[in-house]
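NADP-dependent oxidoreductase domain protein, Crinalium epipsammum PCC 9333. C-alpha cells?
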Amino acid sequence: MMQYRRFGRTELQMPVFSCGGMRYQYKWQDVAGSEIPLDNQHNLEATIYRALEVGINHIETARGYGTSEMQLGKILPTLPREKLIIQTKVGIKADPEEFRRDFEKSLAFLQLDYVDLLGLHGINNAETLDYSIRDGGCLEVAQKLQAEGKVRFIGFSTHGATDLIVQAIATNKFDYVNLHWYYINQFNWAAIEAATRHDMGVFIISPSDKGGLLYKPTPKLVKLCHPLSPMVFNDLFCLSHPQVHTLSLGAAKPQDFDEHLKTLELLDGADEILPPILQRLEEEAYKELGEEWVKTWHLGLPTYEETPGGVNIPVILWLRNLAIAYHMIDYAKIRYNLLGNASHWFPGNKAEQVKELDLSECLANSLHADKIPGFLDEAHQMLAGESVQRLSKN
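C-alpha cells:
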C-alpha cells in the first residue's frame, strides 16, 4: 500500500510517489482545447485515475508543460478537491507581473480555485534567484497569491548548483524544494540537509529519467542491481533516506506506476537489501575507472564560469564516468549534447575545443590536472552528436 511522509513545514501527508505531469500531455505548447485528441485526453485521465487508485494523490504539473494544465483541468474539477494535493510551477520572470499573469493562466487552465503548492520554476542561477527574492520579485507575488487564498504553500524547483540551492534555502522563505538527487547524482545532498534543517518538503525530480533512463537500463546496470530492477533500486535508494519525502514519476500511461510500486513492500528492509547492490556498483566503478579516481575526481574542479570556453568540466567527467563504469552511453549522450543548448537549465559547454584551451590554471587544485584534458577529449569523442534541446523546447 502507498506510504506517506510529512512534507516538511507544510504538514501535508505526501505520498512517497508523485504523479508528475510532463509526459502524458498532448503538446509542449499551448493549443486550443479542441485540438487535443480524445485518445490522448482519455489516456491522461486514465493515468490520473490509476494514480489515485494506488494512493498517489499528489498531482504535479507546470505552466511550462504545454497542454498539461489544460488537460488536467478537464478532470480535476470532477474529483474530491480536499483529497488532492495539486502543484504547479510558474517560470521566474524579471517582470513579476508577468509571473502573476502566468499563474492566473495556470489556475484558469486547471479550473481550480487554488493550488496546494506553487513552485517558482527554475531558480538555476544568481539571476533567477534575484528575480525571485528581491523586493517586489516573484516570491513576493507568490506570497500575495497566498494571502488571496489562491496558493497554500510556496516552494521552488531548481537545476542549479548545490551552493545556489543552499543559498535559496537559507532565505527560509520557501516551504519546499524540487531538486535532483538519486544514486548516479548525489551532489545535492548538502542541499537536502539544508532543506531538512529548515523543515522544508523535499521532492526529487525525475529519478527514473534524469536518474539514468532507468525505464530502458543498460544490461550492465540490470546485472549490477539484481535482484531489483535498476528503477526499483533507485527508488529504494532515494526513499531509504527519510529526508526525502517524494519521488516524481513522470507517467505517460497508467501502467507506468507498476514497476515503482514494487518498491513499497521493500522499504522496511532497505537496510538489508541495498548494501550488496551498492557494493557491487561501487566495486564496478573502481574496476573500470580506478579507486583513486572514483573517490577524488570531483575535488578541486572549476565551475564552467571559471573555465576557458565555458567547458563544464564536472558534468562532462561525471558523464564519462557513467558511460565507462555502467555503459550508460545513451544517457550520457543525451545529457552531454544538452550542453550549450539548454541555457541555465543545463549550463556550460561541451569539450570540442578542449585541445585548443589552456586549462592548467583552472585545474590547479585538481589531483588529476594532467589527465583531465585527455579525459575531456575522450568524452567528447565518445558522446558528441546532434544537439539536444530541453523537452519544453521540442
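Residues 4-271 form a domain with the TIM Barrel fold (CATH 3.20.20.100).
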